[in-house]
Each structure stands twice: as C-alpha cells, then as structure tokens.
Amino acid sequence: MKIAFFGTGNMGEPMALNLLKAGHEVIAFNRTPAKLVQLEKAGARIAHSPAGAVEGVDAAITMLANDQAVRDTMLGPAIEVLPAGAVHMCTSTISVGFSKELAVEHARHAQHYVAAPVLGRPDAARDKRLWVMAAGPRGQVERCKPIMEAIGRGITIVGAEPWQANVTKIGANFMLMAMLEAMGESFALVRKSGVDPHLFLEVINGIFNSPVYSIYGKIVADRQFEPAGFRLALGMKDAGLALAAGQDAAVPLPLASLIHDHFLSAIAHGRADADWAALTEVSARAAGLDGA
C-alpha cells in the first residue's frame, strides 16, 4: 500500500520503519525534519506538508500526541487532498469525542476512518510487538490488517464504531497508570521500612509473572526515569481522557481523579518530560524519602 505517515517520534519512527520492511511505500511528514532522517535513509519519501504527504495514497496513518495534533494534521488542507476512498488509520491515543468527529468528517469527504490505537513502549514498536486495538467498518478494518500486521504482534477488533477502539485504549492506559500508582505507594512503604526495592521487585515478579510489572517495576526500583519511553505529560493527558470518557458514559472513575492530580503534582515538580513511571515519585516524596 501507499501510505502517508504522520508523527515519527519515539513510537512513530519504528512503526514506519516496520511498514517499509513489510514492503509498503511510505511518505513521511513531521514538523521536526530531524526526526525524518532515519526514515529517509531507509527508503521513505519525505513530504514537506501534510497535504503533500496524502496525495494519491491508499492510507494515512497518524501517530501523534493528542487531539489537537491530529486535528491540525488531518482536518486542515490534508483532508481536502486525501483521495476519496482512502482510509485514515489513527493509531494515536485521542478522545472518544474527537474520534467520532473524525468519522463524520472523513465520511463527508467520501473517505474512510479506522481507529487503531496501539499498546507498547518504543522497544515494542521497534520489535513489532505492539498490540493493536481496532474498530471501524468491517471492510475497512480488513483492508488495514496488512498495516496492523506490519507493526504489531496481535490485533483485537473491538467494534464497528471507531470510537470503541479509543475507549478501549483509554481503559487499558488507565489500568497501567493505576498499576503505577499502586507501585508508587507500595515501593514507598517498603523503601521507608528498610527493605531493598529490588528484593521487593523479585517478590512482585514472582506473584504476577508479568512483563509489564517487570519492566515498570525495574524502572521504579532503579528510579531511572530518563530517557522517557512515554512522557509523564502524556500520561496526565491520558488520565484526562479517562475522566472525560467516564463523564460521557456516566461512569465514576475516582481513582483516575487521584492519579490525574498526582500527575499534575509530578509536573509541578519538573517531571513533565520524565517517563510516566515517575508518577511513583509522588508517593515517595509524600513519604519523605530522599531524592524524590
């Protein structure tokens, strides 16, 4: 397929590289040209504007930070140039409301829209180990499967309405941040009680036998929050998405409110660009632990 790819940061670059490896033609755009160097070396064509990237493509993929970045990229001149019949596959973590708006706008332009957010950190993107949650019209999801298979290890189709994939991703991210909140409190307790946090991690790994707990537990035990695999500021954005989705669906999410405030506290202490696992330092600081 001929694919326009928007957003070549920590996640987007390895995803686009895997699309090239799978034999797709990739036209890449990023507002920061330095983030396109490796893709150009690998054979991607570089576009100088979003509209220029989508000319004549079969599909456009967005891997951008938030609603506004996707809006600025796709709902400006690009949507007027994206061919009728082409599909926009949005892999970004965006709000339910904006996903619904994208579906309407693409339909108005005789285009298609599939939501396919992904779970995984940059190393998973590099190694094609992302998990893809997809939703949209059945025929268009099937059409996008070769793209999804090129970037991930598994696909779950969660519904016929694209926004259903977005609420699934928001729910999954909420579970991850709830895990980080629990880790923060638990590690603060054992550290202040004189227990080696790495021994505590050994116990956690024995109980859960989960790569997610193991990866994040090591980051927390080592207190190694740079470089960020996923920025803490984006974690706070996702906590806000969970609260908004809960309000829309009349589902109280009291833990999400607490976590959102803890993200805000971390940002107030200068940790916006740290890995979102630095959320755990809020509990450490509240416990009076040195260095938090």
Task: Explain what the structure shows.
α9 runs parallel beside α14 (280-286). The protein has 2 domains: 2-160, NAD(P)-binding Rossmann-like Domain (Rossmann fold, 3-Layer(aba) Sandwich), CATH 3.40.50; 167-286, N-(1-d-carboxylethyl)-l-norvaline Dehydrogenase, domain 2 (Orthogonal Bundle), CATH 1.10.1040.10. The longest helix is centred in the middle third of the chain and has 31 residues, at 162-192. The strands form 2 sheets. The protein has a 6-stranded parallel sheet, sandwiched between helices. Strands 7-8-9 form a 3-stranded mixed sheet. The radius of gyration is 20 Å and the shape is globular. It contains 14 helices and 9 strands. The protein has 292 residues and is an alpha/beta fold.
